[in-house]
Amino acid sequence: MKKVTISSLQAQKQSAEKIAALTAYDASFAKLFDEQNIDVLLIGDSLGMVLQGQDDTLAVTIDDIAYHTRAVRRGTQRAFVIADLPFMSYATPNQTYSNAAKIMAAGASMVKLEGGQWLCETITGLVQRGVPVCAHMGLTPQSVHVFGGFKVQGRHQEKAEQMVEEAIAVQNAGAQLLVLECVPSSLGKRISEELTIPVIGIGAGKDTDGQILVMHDMFGISANYMPKFSKNYLVETGDLRKAVKKYISDVRSGAFPSTAHSFE
Ligand code: KIV
Ligand code: NA
């Protein structure tokens, strides 16, 4: 079995082979997803919402992420493992480096941070120190109180142009992946075309280089809210493994997301 690496993900973008990603928080689900050939597993700070039952991701700590990363690592053989740096864990350079060290030591192969232009120095510093970076732009949930709710971003032309520029900036700073959340499909397409690094979308339309969903949303078992861009694959398959298999094949074929799961 060939392990997924940042180089193989980059090659997938080059050959227009869509990247299928899911969040995971424990060894059992990580193993189940890995056995279905998921490309990427993310230990997301969404665990604050789907595991802890909180309204947002802000209370998640670096130790929470490290704990779940160790569990996911043990269940994973093939997939590429990314872990979130949670709210305020990358506010200063020293903090960023020691927190990134914790989750790399826990078994992540890349860290994810939310932001654009302002993150550039942080990204360069991490990459220079051997920590690969995934940037997360669009609807960045750690800023939910700045946005005034979980809202689609980049709807206006000026904001969309700015997002394109900032995405190029984080790529130039050294980011090797981009997660793009809740933007109009046209902007998801544009950013994926402009960037040479793979863009993994969630609510960003069908033209990104890959898709990610929160596992609880994909199974339709989230405690609180089911976002519009998500799809319940368990209801149509009635089996956990079949649901994952169908999600992955729908991502690879481009059947997911349809316009019903996208923003125009
Ligand atoms: O925390 C998370 O699960 C995420 C994904 C939704 C991209 O950041
Ligand atoms: Na996250």
From TrEMBL:
Catalytic activity reads:
(6R)-5,10-methylene-5,6,7,8-tetrahydrofolate + 3-methyl-2-oxobutanoate + H2O = 2-dehydropantoate + (6S)-5,6,7,8-tetrahydrofolate
Q: Per its UniProt entry, what is the enzyme's top EC class, as one word?
A: transferase
Keywords (alphabetical) are: Cytoplasm, Magnesium, Metal-binding, Methyltransferase, Pantothenate biosynthesis, Transferase
* Alphabetized Pfam families for the sequence: Pantoate_transf
Does this UniProt record's set of keywords contain Magnesium? yes
What is the free-text note on the cofactor? Binds 1 Mg(2+) ion per subunit.
Q: Which InterPro entries match?
A: Pantoate_hydroxy_MeTrfase, Pyrv/PenolPyrv_kinase-like_dom, Pyrv_kinase-like_dom_sf
Question: Per its Swiss-Prot or TrEMBL entry, what cofactor is needed?
Answer: Mg(2+)
Which biological process annotations from GO are given for this protein? methylation; pantothenate biosynthetic process
Which residues are the active-site ones?
181
Enumerate the subcellular locations listed in this protein's record, separating them with semicolons: Cytoplasm
Domain of life, per UniProt, equals Bacteria
Which GO MF terms does the UniProt record name? 3-methyl-2-oxobutanoate hydroxymethyltransferase activity; magnesium ion binding; methyltransferase activity
Give the binding site residues for 3-methyl-2-oxobutanoate.
45-46, 84, 112
Please give an example of a GO cellular component term from this record. Answer: cytoplasm
> Where mainly found?
cytoplasm
Q: Where does Mg(2+) bind?
A: 45, 84, 114
Pathway membership, UniProt: Cofactor biosynthesis; (R)-pantothenate biosynthesis; (R)-pantoate from 3-methyl-2-oxobutanoate: step 1/2
Q: How does it assemble?
A: Homodecamer; pentamer of dimers.
The Swiss-Prot or TrEMBL record describes its family as follows:
Belongs to the PanB family.
* UniProt-listed NCBIfam families: panB (TIGR00222), PRK00311.1 (NF001452)
Q: What is its biological role?
A: Catalyzes the reversible reaction in which hydroxymethyl group from 5,10-methylenetetrahydrofolate is transferred onto alpha-ketoisovalerate to form ketopantoate.
Put simply, this protein is called: 3-methyl-2-oxobutanoate hydroxymethyltransferase
